[in-house]
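User: Structure please.
Assistant: Input sequence and predicted structure:
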Amino acid sequence: MPTAQQRIEAATAEASPSLSRVGHWMSAHLIQTLSCSADEMAALTGTSVAAINRFSRAAGFDGFAHLKNTLGKQLESVVDPVRKLSGAKARAGAGPIAADALQAACAAPEIRRAAGRLLKARNVWLLGLGASSYVAGYAAHVLMPYLPQVWAVAGSGGTEVAARRLARVAKGDVMLAVSLPRYSTATVRLAGFARERGAHVIALTDSPQAPLAAVADLLLLAPAQHPVMPSSALGAVAVVETLTAAVMRLNPDAVLIARELSEAVLRHLATGVAPGSDPTEET
């Protein structure tokens, strides 16, 4: 079924000149539409309240109130940060994620299953766009030493470059895709493409109802709520680290790999400093 945004755009293309002004304004100001009354919308578009309701019905809604209600539900994850800042949720000192939620996410049995899949993969593809790209990049960084082939899909060049890099994805590969609110539709499309090509898709997201979950073969859930920001990456990073630790435990060569890695980076590290101590403190 088309989304409210798609219905507005379709109605705009077929509307009369006066009603198309309403549709063009709504399409360009979807979030502001949610807070406008019919009178305010009429003033902003140079039309009338009757025109606002006629356009809403032309788009398949019962009226402007129904349009706003449907649009608001579909844009909830997008507008939630605005509501947080303007409402009582933005309380100073509120922590983003409870410790018990983090612990539960990191204890999920699916993490060990995912680790086993990663170790058997011909190639492992790490995908994340927007803010989630940093989580995917960190996952590529920590997993790379312990898996044969790890590829970070996202990077400079955006979605087009990510699609080009995935041209080689095939059966026997595994994709670990990360998607936190606000959700990227491109991540879902690219993960779906990888699955169609035969790759096993592991989704790391915050809810079974998240768009990415629909194209996943295996779902890893991480709490992502935040009192002010659109989402928190703390839970996803914790799950990535737990997954990496599981890969390391299952990899029979992990100790040798860790030793060789340490020797390779040793000359670039500060030595003689105990973890947690102040390296500038004189002894």
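The CA atoms of residues 168 and 197 lie 9 Å apart.
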